[in-house]
Amino acid sequence: MYDLATRKRVLALVDQGRSLNSVSKQTGISRAAIRDWQVRIEPISRATECPRCSPDPQLPEPTDTYAYLLGLYLGDGCLSAQSRGGYALRISCADAWPGLINACREAIRSVRPMNSVCLVQNQGCVMVTSYSRHWPCLFPQHGPGKKHERPIVLEPWQQRIVDTHPWEFIRGLIHSDGCRITNWTEKTVGGERKRYEYPRYFFTNKSDHIRRLYADTLDYLGVEWRQTNAWSISVAKCGSVALMDAHVGPKY
Question: Which fold has domain 163-247?
Answer without folding.
Answer: Endonuclease I-creI (3.10.28)
